[in-house]
Amino acid sequence: MSSSPAAPSPRPAAEAVPRSLCAREPHVPADRLVGEMVPPPRFDSVRFDTYIPDPARPSQTEAVRELSGFAAGLGGAHASGAGRKRWFQRKAAAPTGPRGIYLDGGYGVGKTHLLASLWHATPAAPAQKAFGTFVELTNLVGALGFQQTVRTLSEHRLLCIDEFELDDPGDTVLVSSLLAKLVEQGVALAATSNTLPGKLGEGRFAATDFLREIQGLSAHFRALRIDGDDYRHRGLPEAPAPYSEEQVTKAAYATEGASLDDFPQLLEHLSKVHPSRYGALTDDIAAVCLTDVTPVPDQSTALRLVVLADRLYDREVPVLASGVPFDRLFSEDMLNGGYRKKYFRAISRLTALARDAQGLVGG
Predict the structure, then answer these.
(1) Pairing state between β 221-225 and 258-262
(2) At what angle do helices 169-184 and 207-214 cross, to 10 degrees?
(3) Strand 100-104 and strand 188-194: pairing?
(4) Which of 125, 191, 239, 277 has its CA 20 to 30 A from that of 98?
């Protein structure tokens, strides 16, 4: 029985050369910065009822209850009285009790999930709610100026700040002044913590730092402690080992919309792009393929990589890499230093994205 000729090998799904993040120099107008102050795509569909509390961690269930009540309390008119028209105008009474909630807990316990759920649950139009990281908020002030930022955000009912930083006193004081103005206008606040370990102990609310940096704002916040393990690793397998450079390159050519970059060159390129543009840097990227991943050489480079990892994770962009595994990106000194929570968060998120990328490599 004669056999038919072997079929030709299938062509890659993507005929074009992969994109390169290093070739991109995005420019982000100020109005886009404001318009994009919503929960990132990864958290579009999260709600309080999609958060799965750990039965062994009652603080997680308590956080859902407290935040649900907080959201319900933000219904009705703006706390400043804005938007109301009365025949007998009277100055609105100052809101009683804390107008802000501060979520404290280790990385990976679902703080961003809960913060985004609060945003979704708050009974107000999207244009009346803002959501962004601390860094994105400082970038907004830089783009618009302080007074315009106050005017832009003052009509909002809620401002959610993810990953509130306590490692840059200058930026913290700037945002503290901004939040003070917004609280005066009746804007409710919610934030997640990014405390520096070694202050009052890892995983504890850095009350001393918070009170010092936020100063008069401290009375507007109440802290909710959320205990737990990194949910991204609960019952999940270990991160896949890095692939070969040939496998990564082949996958990049076979995946439509993928990017392909040499890791050291990408780190160099990140130094030339403002972190506020890292989200735009990844626009329309279906997968990030990296070759020759090596440990980052210094702390400034490491912190830029943390921001990129956050933006990729927000957008659920899988990451396929050759070289060293992601848990070897940062030196022992870095993992034991003041920014260790940032680095562990980046490792955790990149590990999750590496799992997502496994399907890009053929058997």
Answers:
(1) unpaired
(2) 70
(3) parallel
(4) 125
- Dump pLDDT digits (tens) for 182-231: 988 999 999 987 553 334 333 333 445 555 555 555 666 788 888 876 55
Measured distance CA(317)–CA(307) in Å, rounded: 14
Calculate the CA 39 to chain-centre distance. 9
**Residue linked to tokens 């004669």:** 2
3-class secondary structure, 68:
helix
Residue found under tokens 């970059």: 261
Q: Running DSSP on this structure, what letter comes out for residue 19?
A: B
7 — pLDDT class (breaks 50, 70, 90): very low
For tokens 């993507």, name the residue.
Answer: 14
Conformation bin of residue 345: beta by default, left when phi > 0, alpha when psi is -120 to 50: alpha
Q: Mean pLDDT across the chain, nearest whole number?
A: 81
Helix (H, G, I), strand (E, B) or coil at 107: coil
pLDDT band at 304 (very low <50, low <70, confident <90, very high): very high
Residues 6 or more apart whose CB falls under 8 angstroms from that of 117 comprise 46, 47, 48, 50, 51, 67
The closest of 133, 141, 226, 221 to 178, measured between CA atoms, is: 141
Q: pLDDT confidence of 355, banded at 50, 70, 90?
A: very high
Q: Which two tokens stand for residue 194?
A: 């990014």
Q: What is the rounded CA–CA span in Å between residue 21 and residue 67?
A: 38
Complete DSSP assignment for 80-92: T-TT---SS--PP
pLDDT at 94 over 60: no
